[in-house]
Amino acid sequence: MAKTAPHFWQAGSTSPLPRLLRPLSALYGLGNRLNQRMTAAQEIGAPVISIGNLVAGGAGKTPTAIAIALRLAALGRHPQIVSRGYGGKLAGPVRVDLTRHTSTDVGDEALLLAAAAPTWIGGNRPAAARAAVAAGADCIIADDAHQTYALARRLSLLVVDGGYGFGNGLQLPAGPLREPIEEGLARCDALVLIGPRSVPLPDFGRRPVFAATLDPNPADAVRLRGRSVLAFAGIGRPEKFFTSLQQLGATVVQTATFPDHAPYSPDTVMRLVETAHKLNAIPVTTAKDQVRLPAKARQMVDVLRVVLNFAEPQRVDDYLRSRLHDGATAGA
């Protein structure tokens, strides 16, 4: 997603743009269906767990992938993560090396994933997954892979933001959907529902729903509580970040938004730092944005990290264990 999510994507918007853009949405949907029908799913020699969503940006896929990787490792598995490496220049397959790769090389999300588990990037997702298996993975977590039809999977988890849901229910570009809700749900095995249901959501049927929350890193929360901050972010829905700062007790005196995945120049960061100083505030951004800052500028900007916590972690573990053991087919 190139920019932040437009407001007319939200449910209840009175903007005329969704209606005007519907013909383009029909073409987008046709292209997606043709891609799905013409793509054969490839087995890669190990069970694949797909982490995906139905909307463009901001649902919480990356924190979910990290949480699942950590849970699998605690269960004695050897997971490795496969990502497209969006925003990076390397085509892959290549294993992310935190000592030498930057967001320019492998994208911002891959750097966050690699801090939790061995991570590979590649435009050819099956090839990247096979490289991970050759490197010792006994299961693969495919980040943002619900619409990656070339990769066969054992389990498909759909991430849903309980406070946003599926927006206005329309496909790109009239709305945030990558595909129709019913088609996307038909291919998922279970859902991760992040946050309380504050918008109407469809019936998920008998699929398991695992409730979760995105919580601030405790040390970051303590450090930022009571502080005046200039908050800036270049993510799918930056307002979520601003709200998180307010909820932990920081005073947000000014905000700034940037395109999702866009790099920050030294001049841009210096302007933010100088503006914050004039406001007697500190500049704060997200972990995803922090890895896109120039290396020398990172020490001038604070960060609020988040972690995904499951409401019933044992239930999640039991489900993962059973699905990886029984060899069930995703979407069954």
Account of the 3D structure:
It is an enzyme of class 2 (transferase). Pathway: Glycolipid biosynthesis; lipid IV(A) biosynthesis; lipid IV(A) from (3R)-3-hydroxytetradecanoyl-[acyl-carrier-protein] and UDP-N-acetyl-alpha-D-glucosamine: step 6/6. The protein has 332 residues and is of the alpha/beta class. The protein folds into 2 domains: 195 residues, Rossmann fold; 87 residues, Rossmann fold. 33% of the residues lie in helices and 20% in strands. It contains 11 helices and 13 strands. The strands form 2 sheets. The chain has a 9-stranded mixed sheet, sandwiched between helices. Strands 10-9-11-12 form a 4-stranded parallel sheet. The radius of gyration is 20 Å and the shape is globular. The two termini are 30 Å apart.
Tally of DSSP β-strands:
13
Helix content: 25-40%
Task: Domain count, please report it.
Answer: 2
Strand residues, percent: 15-25%
Distance between the termini: 30 Å
For CATH, the homologous superfamily of the largest domain is named as P-loop containing nucleotide triphosphate hydrolases
Q: Structural class of the secondary elements?
A: alpha/beta
What's the story with the biggest beta sheet? 9 strands, mixed
Please report the first level of CATH classification, the CATH class of the largest domain.
Answer: Alpha Beta
Per CATH, which architecture of the largest domain? 3-Layer(aba) Sandwich
Give the helix tally: 11
**Form type:** globular
Please state the average pLDDT score. 94
Family: Belongs to the LpxK family.
Pfam family, one: LpxK
Organism: Ferrovibrio terrae
Pathway: Glycolipid biosynthesis; lipid IV(A) biosynthesis; lipid IV(A) from (3R)-3-hydroxytetradecanoyl-[acyl-carrier-protein] and UDP-N-acetyl-alpha-D-glucosamine: step 6/6
